[in-house]
Amino acid sequence: xVRPRRSALYMPGANERALLxxxxxxxxxxxxxxxxxxxxxxxxxxxxxIVSIVKEGGYGHREICVRVNGKGTKWYEEDISxxxxxxxxxxxxxxxxxxxFVVDTAGLMDKNGAPEGMKIWCxxxxxxxxxxxxxIGGAHSxxxxxxxxxxxxxxxxxxxxxxxxxxxxxSMQMCILAARxxxxxxxxxxxxxxxxxxxxxxxxxxxxxxxxxGKTLIHxxxxxxxxxxxxxxTEELEWAARISKAHDLALAEGKGVTLVDGKLVEGLxxxxxxxxxxxxxxxxxxxxxx
Length: 290
Ligand code: COA
Ligand code: MG
Hints:
The chain is α/β, with parallel strands linked by helices and 290 residues long. The chain is built from twelve helices and ten strands. Strand 7 (185-188), helix 9 (197-210) and strand 8 (214-217) form a beta-alpha-beta unit.
C-alpha cells in the first residue's frame, strides 16, 4: 500500500505549542516525542499531554506517531501501555537492536489493547541495530517503517558528521535494503544544522536518490523542501504516463518490451510508474482536503 511519508516532523512532547502547531503544518507525519527531545523530569507530564492532545484530534490526514522511551528505560512500559490506548497510528521505537525487542513490544501493545492496525516503526541508530536491520524489519507484521537515526549512529560509530555522509553510506543502504526486503517504507535521518538550507536540500536529494521514502525533520521550515524533493516531479509523472501508454500498446502487440525516446521500457518500469502516479494521487487528495 502506498502512503505519502515525505516529511516526518519530530515535535517534543513537552512543547505544547509545537504539538498544537502540528494541526496546521503540511507534514505527512508528526512524530510526538517522549524520548531524547524530552528531559527526564518532563517525561510523565509530556506523556499525559500527548494523550490528551491526540484525543482532542484536529490532525486530519496526518499520520500521528509517538516516539516512546527505549526498552530498558524506566519509562518504556508505561509509555507503551498508555500510547497503545491513545488512538495514534504508530509507536516509534528508538534504538532497536534486536528483533526480540520488536516482538516483546508488539506483545505488550496487544496486552494493553492496541488496535490491530496500530503500527510499529523501528529506529536503527546504533551498530547492532544496523547489522540486525533485516531481522528487525521482518520481526513482526506490525512493523511498517524503518527510520535511520543519524546522530546516535554517528556517535556509536565514532564517525564524524560530513556533508557527503560517507561515514554513513553503508548504514543508509543497509536500512533501505532491510526495508525493501520486508516490504516496508524507510525514512532518512534528520539534518541538524537549521542555518544551512542548501545543505538540507542536498541531504534530501541524496536520501531520495538512495531510495528513502522521506526524511525525518526537526523544524517546520524544512517541511516544504522535503515534500517537494520526496514527491514525484512533473517530469516523472509525464514520463510515467508515456511509458504506461507505450507499454500497453506493446502488450497489445504481444511484446513485453518497447523503446520510448530510445530507452528500454519493461513491466518493471511500469510498476514504478504506477507507484508514483498513486503517490501523486494521494498527495493531491491531501492538498485538497487541507
Ligand atoms: N514542531 C512543531 N513546531 C515547531 C517545531 C517542531 N519541531 N520547532 C519549532 N516549532 C515552532 C515553534 O514553536 C515556533 O512557533 P511559534 O512561532 O508559533 O511560536 C516556530 O515553529 C518557530 O520556531 P523557532 O523559533 O524557529 O524554533 P525554536 O527556537 O522555538 O526551536 C528547536 C528550535 C530545534 C528547539 C525546535 O525546532 C525543536 O524542538 N525541534 C525538534 C527537536 C527534536 O524533536 N529532537 C529530537 C529528534 S532528533
Ligand atoms: Mg536517537
